[in-house]
Amino acid sequence: MGEILENSKISSRQAVFLMVTMIFATVILSVPAITVKHARQDAWISVGLATVAGLLIARLVTTLGLRFPERTLFEYPAEILGRWPGKLVGFFYIIWFLHINAGVIREYGEFLVTAFRPAPPLIVFNLMAVAIAAYTVRNGLEVFTRANEIFFPLTMGLIVITSIFASGETDIQRLLPVADVDAVSIFKGAMVPLAWFGEIVTIALVIPYLNRPRESHRAAVTSVLISGVVFMLVVANAIGIFGPDLIEAMVFPGLNKYRIVNLANFLGRFEALAMTAWVTAGFVKISIFYWATLLGVSQVLELKDYRSLVLPVGGVLMAMSMLDHPSALHLQHFEAQVFPFFALTFEAAIPLLLLITALVRGKGERLG
Amino acid sequence: MRKLIRPVRAKLLAAKKNTGGASEASAEKTKDNTDRDKTSSFLSEDLSSNLARIKEIFQNCSDIIYRQFLFAQREDIRLVLIYADGLADKLQVSEQIMRALSLEVPMAAPEADITKAGAYHLIKERGLCVHQIKETDRLEDVIEAVLSGDTVLLVEGHPFAFINGMRGWEARPVSESENEMVVRGPRESFVETLRTNTALLRRKTRSSDLKLEMMQLGRITKTDVAVVYLKGIANDKLVEEVKSRLQGIELDSVLESGYVEEMIQDNTWSPFPQMNHTEKPDRLAARLLEGRVGIMVDGTPIVLTVPTVFIEFMHSAEDYYERFQIGTVVRIIRFLSMFLSLVMPSFYIAIITFHQEMLPTALLLSLAAQREAVPFPAFVETLLMELTFEILREAGIRLPRQVGQAVSIVGALIVGEAAVRAGLVAPATVIVVAFTGISSFVYFYSASFAIRLLRFPMIVLSATLGLYGLISVLIIIVVHLCALRSFGTPYLSPVAPVSLGDMKDLVVRAPWWAMFTRPRLIGWKNLKRQEPDQKPVPPETRTGEKGGGGDTGKQ
User: Fold this and answer.
1) How high is the ipTM of this complex?
2) Residue B358 and residue A272: Cβ atoms within 8 Å?
């Protein structure tokens, strides 16, 4: 069935690029502020912990996926649990992908509204994002994977380079004392980034389209590792520049960092550049979840082609991105308090249950 | 649309072939028709009736010449020469056919041999002094031969005709290429005659593997089209695909290779050219050697090559002839100017309108001072200037060469100088627009069309959404390019999908000894171009190498 819907084939490297962009696109925006609120100057330890837990999730998801290397997360629940319960699980995943994508689009819009003076209304940015993503997903997985291959070095390069430029302002003292806060706070701080690293669950949709599905273990682990380490550096860098008190008060610490860059008294205010990097990454992320939703709907409903779904799903995404959260503050609150549990249910709990059931019932092959 | 049409047509063909019953009847009917045509179109033994039929077909064609004369001065064996005036070589026709048959044959052959029955054989074996002859008994062949410039000879009492290949029309001589200039490298360029072009190509690649498959396109123009490739290097499937796409063309005319291009390209709606073209034999040979297929069309010096990847447009023939460092630096400049010619005006507008904070204060103040007197917003100003530039550019191309100078003076003086003085545009805008224009001349012409076209939506979006609008358009362009394919090859390869081995001919032009493989996605059938380890070694290291191992071949 997979062959009919989507006949793309992507390489492991492309998958890694895709997953890293997906995780990194939004984790860099508001997560530092939330983590710092809990773990103060030890936020980077929280990120490290989240990375380790993320690696476990990656392993879990790929182990489950490799039992059914020809099928996606929307299809094999039906095989494990039976037709209708399986379809129900698939349906929940569709809702989940829609919701987190709506959140991403909203954050995308809110970020751009913040970055812009004078700003057009929020709906303009959301509409642009969904429209571009619609055009992209219509072309299929292979195309946006390839496009990401071009964006990835640019976005990651920009993030790293601007961090290096900004690092002139860092003060290592702000990171001290290490492990000052209690362990519970560090764990609390780790929950939010973990929810983002857990988005690696998306690789369960990509495994059937990999050139060599057996490499998906390594691909998933590499993706989480790269995003974890870079994010840890970004957070440590931000704390070094602003100190925990300031970061806590900021909405987008990742952006503020670039405001202070000044190069040779000529190039200053890098936030526009950072914004461009982020816009491309955010667009890739929206496209991935958009594609995931389309794939999910067509696989759960057993449709032959998802192209006809592009516009309706886009409309739903638009509506949800505007209506899910009444304000940016609400979105932030949701991300800090609700999202980790909402996300981890789908990222870890359900896959774990599915894997246990599959093992008990002896479904699937033993590849990984 | 084409994608839709082609399967339908294939299905129809398949239906005709496979099904019995109803459609078979119609198929048989058409067969009958052609058969009747055939019987009626054979030449007869009667010369005057043949001639009458041909004359009827060529009614009112004043350029067709019928020359009747006698074979070996014999009243009973009459001959007729038919050719199109101006297409056949008149001198050769008179010398090698008429003179030979009417005067020289009787001198060489005994009188007894010359009989009406044996005349045909005698003419063929001993009479005609022509390098290439063909025989036919079909009227259509005769007509076609005359129209192609060949000379047809009809013999009294024989239902056959000789087609003598003695074409010789006025043609532009091989001259220097005007569109693809090089400082170092061969100058010659293709001309309008297909045969001359194939000869130019053959001179570059003396290999029996160079195949030239001919076909005719265009219902009325009957244009010769040659599919050229190197057997064993070009992928067979690609060659088949090119041929089948060409055979699917049903146009009434093919006057330029552009007709062919639009009929066989993968995506009609894309502004980006999915087929590269060249007018230089060395470029064509180089591309064939990479595993590409060329499509030569008679009547135009422009030869198409497929598959095409986007980066080809950033390359020039000279990159490969000059020192490789120069080639690399020049390519960087070309990539940069491609990017600048796309985003420069939009970037300017976005910065001026939305992101002034990105500029250093001194520059910002100077810009603000310039723009103080200008009555338009940056968007209108830039758009006006861009439009003016496009008009000037078009005028520069279309006008006769003598007037061209006037246009550039008017353009430079009035638009540049006077508009600034009148306070209509800011000098910075003029600089931006002029620089954009110059940048778009740096890389290959046909790609610059797409970039020119896409500049305008980008300007509009940058004026409304700032840098975000600019980035959005860039994202769409990149996604679009990623989705494009040219005859199965991803348009953005080797950048996306990444092919590390091909990076030595992307921005960097590696020295020739290092480019020992062909581009992977195009030349995979015969990947090895030459032996690796051919880095030249100066004599002193060569002697030391035996003992110490040297560093040859390691890089």
Assistant:
1) 0.91
2) yes
